Known about the structure:
Elements: E1 16-18, E2 21-24, H1 27-38, H2 43-57, E3 67-73, E4 78-83, H3 93-100, H4 104-107, H5 121-132, H6 137-150, E5 152-153, H7 156-169, H8 175-179, E6 191-192, H9 195-206, H10 210-213, H11 216-227, H12 234-238, E7 243-245, E8 248-252, E9 255-259, H13 266-276, H14 289-309, H15 320-323, H16 326-333, E10 355-360, E11 366-372, E12 382-383, E13 388-389, E14 420-424, E15 427-435, H17 439-453, H18 458-463, E16 467-469, E17 475-478, H19 483-491, E18 496-499, E19 508-514, E20 523-527, E21 534-537
Amino acid sequence: MKFDWNNPYPTIRAPLFARNAVATSQPLAAQAGAAMLRLGGNAVDAALAAAAVLTIVEPVSNGIGSDAFAIVWDGVRLHGLNGSGGAPMGWTPEYFMTKYGVNAAAILPKRGWDTVTVPGAVAAWAELHEKFGKLSFSEVIEPAAELAEHGFGVGPVTARKWSAAIAEMQGQPGFDNAFLPRGRAPHVGERFRLPAAARSLRQIAATRGRAFYEGELADRIVRFGEQHGAALTRADLANYRPEWVTPVSQRFREHDVHELPPNGQGIAALIALGILECLDLEELSVDSVDSIHLQIEAMKLAFADVYRYVADPRAMQVSAEEMLDPRYLKARASLIKRNRATHFNFGLPKTGGTVYLTAADADGMMVSFIQSNYMGFGSGIVVPETGISLQNRGLGLSLDPQSPNFIAPGKKPFHTIIPGFLTKEGRPVMSFGVMGGDMQPQGHVQTLVRMLCYRQQPQAACDAPRWKVNRDFSIDIESTVDSSTAASLAALGHRMRSIDDPYMDFGSGQFIWRQSEALADGYIVASDSRREGQAAGF
């Protein structure tokens, strides 16, 4: 790829060139990953060290009780791991109706124990390490334990989001003791310690994760849940296993884009790119209204289908392959009007707060990894004396019987977190991801279009202003988007809002691009300036 090395967007960052690299949303995590590579570990060791550290240094976005997903290039082929958990076996529609009343569909809790599905991140760490790790599991977890024990200075972006979450989270079981040790959120630069999490991480390391699902930590989680009327049981935890899956892919500009299959929303990026493959974006300038309009319309078409069909694959009415059928995508592309915005309905295929990190090593292994507690601080639940905060992924389920996400025991919820990977002719090109709820597939699309259609180098593609399609199909635009561009999009019929909240609304990306087949040429690494992140390597 002959990139244009100019970066026309305001930024304080330049791409990193290295043969061993880690890019994360927090510098201490990136440095922990790089330390594993220095010790002789591989990209999986680096990714796991960074992931564990992120549960400590970015607790708004993830925790030990998160879910996780990964795509790994092992030097020969891709592997996908789904580390999301299912609903507790006690979660039936009747359970929620009895507890919350006949209008439960409208008043399901946003926080608390009745949003906690079985957390999968710890099991995903252990599974990835078992299959690919070189260093001991204790070695890769220890940097996180040390930071939890001794503390770290809280960064400005994290401090701001921490403080903003307090009004909603305060009073959730265990939250105040863990995350408000001074009765408030930490100030910028103030040292925060979570020694209980250090003990938990070392138990997890010593037992290869089983303490979380079958040992002392499992007992503490379940007992605390029982005190608050939770349905989660010891059997729910003990029976959990992450799932190896085959990534799904879509051809785009002579490359293949790979995402994990449902229950995640990665297919939204593939649908949108499949639609854009039918359109001549290169005839339009990179930041033109016409180019942005076509990308927005493709994303709206993708979401119309994803919100209708994507769920636990056992409950889906159509398959991922049917949603990506080239004839279907071409037909969907034909619905786009170049001179006006359209509100699209779902089609009918022919049937038959998150952290992202990426790592690559000098031997060619590349890892795309993402983990999340979903909304900021997840459920708000923190299990006493463990430092374990739990996600609120149950919000991806529904009490609407017509929804493919209709709640059922053991059912995996609709998931927003998605790692991405790019290949060409069966060879690895880039490990990448853009965190941030519904922004994630949109960030994949926008950055890939910039790199593959317009030859923008990874850091420039990362720094460029972004737009976001909301669930009501209104459009948020970053405040850095040119005002005349925003006005022109509104004139086409898009319902526009200008937002100055880059942390959540427009995501944060990390990118590692392999320069050539020659491993000695190394990688181009970019880290998003919307968070405190860093690209580290040597």
